[in-house]
Design goal:
The chain is mostly helical. Helices cover 72% and strands 4% of the residues.
Amino acid sequence: MAFYLSAQTVYLLFLLFFVSTTCGQLYLSIRQSKAVLAHRSRVPAAFLANVSLDEHQKAADYTLAKQRLARYEILFQALLLLVFTLGGGLDLLARLSQKWTHHDIVQGILLIGLFALVNMVLGWPLAWYRSFCLEAKFGFNKMTLATFIADQFKGCLLAIIVGLPLLYIILLIMQILIAANWFGGAWWLVVWLVWVSFSLLLMWAFPKWIAPLFNKFEPLQDDVMRARIENLLQRTGFHSDGIFVMDGSKRSGHGNAYFTGLGKHKRIVFFDTLLKDMQVNEVEAVLAHELGHFAHKHVFKQMIVTFILALIVFAVLSWLLPQAGFYLGLGVHEPSHAMALLLFMLVLPLFTFPFSPLASVLSRKNEFEADRFAAKYAHAEDLIQALTKLYRSNAASLVSDIWYSRFYDSHPGARERIAALQTAIKAH
């Protein structure tokens, strides 16, 4: 017997999760600010030799400023969600799209496109403030207004070129399979397979075709560092499509390193801001950490988990799609396949927020494993020095509230991470 949700049930569930998630996010942000402020006057013992009080207080002030902005963003996003749903915003966009065309799929594309456009434009002031006020105040913003505008334009163009064909294919599949009742109503499985294929294609295309639209990538020129890295790659059995330096300083003073691509087309990318502050042995240790993720198949495992969760999401959507209560309970009177996709993805974060600690604890476990791998193939002391420099140069807080960390931190706290590495040193 099929189970159907009434509009009242959907409405009450939405309000319950809306209030609890919004209040929970604000509460965690306030807890984080209080924890950082409480330790602002003294450097944690583990960092006394390498981090000055001024640097520690800059990191604290930077974190406090980011948390203040985060609370405004939480409230702003909550208000937008209410306006789009119970406030009738999505209905208004649906009626606008219907005025311009009578083609169902084109109407759906216009609806989602209008939503994305409105959401993006409304988000510009906060994005501008983050870069040109908050980041600039602490000396991190290197972006010009021209670069900011160019990034927004390229992002829009890329969304149209990449997103529009995918959206058209998904809506077309939904229209044909649902109308014909093919695959026993399991249209969502076909859509999921299309989405997975498209995601893998993007992962393959990102390093060669997408990333260069926003940044320049030059082969690593430092012969000593290149030889050290190639030796590490050989010892760990890792094959890459090249070692590149990215002009991260074009936008920010923050430093980082990452892997990108699939299969034999994986690239190693260092921010130029990271290389500027690091010694060769420290860069090797950072890279060894990243290699640890591949050695333990963290990237592959996370990809599989993501695909499985997406499958569950599409299955739930297929159950909700024909239910009038799903739309009416969320203030929508213009149901369609595109509206179902948009509405579901819009409210989904409210219902998944309580599960955030699960993702965070798995991610932190992976980071500890990658650190142990780095301690084996490089030197734990070098990784400690590299991490300390990253904490210092990025003004990353050395202190975090335990509950905030459980929900949000994908990496272990600075003190826990250093302590684990020091334990590894003693063990050897």
